[in-house]
Amino acid sequence: MRYRPFGRSGSAVSALTLKVGADALGGGPSRVHDLVFAGLEAGINTFHLTTADPVLAEAAGEALAQVDRKLIQVSVGLGRFEGRRGGRDFSPQGLTGSIDRVLHASGLGWIDLAMLDEPGEDEMPQAALTALKAQRTSGRVRMLGVAGDTDVMDAYVSTGAFDVLATAYHVNASWQTKHRMRAALEQDMAVMAYGYFPRELDTVKKAEVLHEPKKGLFGLGGGRPKHDPLAGAGTFAFLHQTHGWQAEHICLAFALTDPSVASVMVDAGSADRIEALAAVPERDLPPGLSAQIEMARVRMAAA
Question: Of 43, 59, 108, 238, which sees the most CB atoms within 10 A?
Fold first, then answer.
């Protein structure tokens, strides 16, 4: 595992952040323990609780109690509720209440990063941000972050009130996303990435036809013959055709090559998967693959 500086916090975080959420909790506390332990064994030192569920926080806290608290970083998603409760709450009472429940249940002492989960343009009142800043001043929360990949994030980044931006970033990310990441860095924010392997690229068929030009009049033109040997050329099909690499691992390695990304959030439901993903930061992309990615990006943009 490799480690990178995390914005203005002065700490170093693992290149991968392990997300732990409702899926893990579905297997009971022992399931959460197993995943956290597997992450620690793989060298991961930063964990993201996707919700402020106190049961999840308690299970994660029990596992992380085996490690010196100062050596790990824990972030918590705020504002969205999973499971039967559902719904969203970015009110001052809702956010501070979530922080209280996590700290009480987990025994962690403090939350390294409180991450707002895709707040809407008018969804979060100024009073809520003031309440979060008070939590940061008190030391109960070390940093404040905002997660999302819509244009609304530009406004949140521009406020200068947040320490971290988490955004979807992958081989076909838009120029708007890259601009937002640069803007965050200019605000001295750390950048985390998620969604590095989008569904539109998870099979060779999807990767070949992504943004393929539409057919012309009467359905003619706009594509290659069915068995054309050049089919897939200039597309992301190579993600599934690179010897010794899985498509997901290429996409993860690509996200890690961006110097602006401090850590990439990963979902892993087993120790074997955690081990496989944790090996990616140690690998270099095959020669020429970066050029193939850029060629496919240009073609997709022009389609």
Answer: 59
pLDDT at site 217:
42
Q: In whole angstroms, how far apart are CA 292 and each of 258, 288, 297?
A: 16, 6, 9
pLDDT, the chain, mean: 88
- One DSSP character per residue, 219-282 reads G-SSS--TT-TTTTTTTGGGGGS-TT--HHHHHHHHHHH-TTEEEEEEE-SSHHHHHHHHTGGG
Both tokens of residue 55?
């049961």
Question: What is the DSSP annotation of 153-198?
Answer: HHHHHHTS--SEEEEE--TT--HHHHHHHHHHHHTT-EEEEE--S-
- 3-state DSSP percent of the chain in helix, strand and coil, to 5: 45, 20, 40
Tokens of 123: 């969804």
| Dihedral, CA of residue 132, residue 134, residue 137 and residue 138, to nearest 10 | -110
Q: What's the gap between Cα 147 and its chain centre? A: 9
Query: Is pLDDT above 90 for 206?
Result: no
Q: What is the pLDDT of residues 23-45, one digit of tens each?
A: 888 888 999 999 999 999 999 99
Just give the CATH number of 3-198+247-285. 3.20.20.100
Beta bridge partners of 145: 115, 164
**Which DSSP symbol is given to 301?**
H
Residue 30 has a pLDDT of 94
Cα→Cα distances 243→64, 86, 285, Å: 37, 43, 11
Residue 11 has a pLDDT of: 87
